[in-house]
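Ticket #4471: structure output looks truncated?

Reporter: J.K.
Steps to reproduce: submitted the chain below (313 residues) through the standard prediction queue, then opened the result file.
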Amino acid sequence: MVGLTLVAALIPTAPALANTSPTGGSGLGSAPTTKANAKKKATKAKKKTTVKADADPTTVLNSNPILAPVKQDGGSQHLGERTLRQGMHGHDVRVLQGYLTMDGFETTVDGDFGPTTKNNVIQFENADGLKANGVMTYAQSLVLRQAVAKAMTSTTSSSTSTNTVAGSKATINPDGTASAPSGAPPVVQKVIAAANQIIDTSYCYAGGHGNWKSSCYDCSGSVSYALHGGGLLNSPEDSTGLESYGDPGTGKWITIYADASHTWIIVAGLAFDTAHWGPTTPAGTGPRWLTPANATANLQDGGDYVIRHPAGL
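Returned output as attached by the reporter:
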């Protein structure tokens, strides 16, 4: 689900219910060449359409407990007070869009029930065996609330878990995956777990920008995928977009380097990068974990990198 870690932190209680020469990509990503770089967008691996989500849809949810009783009075303060359909606007539409995003159907949170919101409602309805007409009724809002509550209270799944090691630095395993430091915040461990899922993929221009699940990724697609896995990014960004992500400077746990042609991320001391400095395991051209010694090797190419980090990390 998108942004569950971040949402959980903001909602007090959720009711139970390569062995290659350096490669990378340029801008949106170019075919791997010596110091190339790469990027651009992605969607989800489930049954959804990805649309750029609001920077912080969780603000909509703060004062709206997931399973709170709602009266069908025609108002718009809470999801379920009125039937929602295309063309409507309001706070309840924003909550609907936020909940759709949390349930895996990434939706722009702008309070405008447009064609994309309708399409994602239809996908939600189809997935849950409901009448698929793009209209959110009171009964359907209860089903959506249940789905979000379940996601909020579920334990970490295998897709967001990873092995841990003692200390404050991640280590690379023989198979090329990374083990997260046991002392790292859960969100950092999830970022590492997400990155581990795509270390055997290859490089391709714009890979990871059309769908989160891809057979190949460029540099920004790889970074976006890892951040998304930790609930730190709702939709893929290219390297230029990542130049303004989060807060300036290096982070304690996560640091992003980005310029107009390339981007990579350092997580708990290891770089996750499509530019390979030295041998990698698995071999190939896609995103791989690099040893600490090669974590900032890209800087020698003289790129005008902006250094950013997720707030608090």
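Triage note (M.O.): checked the attachment and the full token line is present. Helices lie at 4-10, 58-61, 91-102, 115-127, 138-153, 186-196, 219-229, 239-242.
Status: closed, working as intended.
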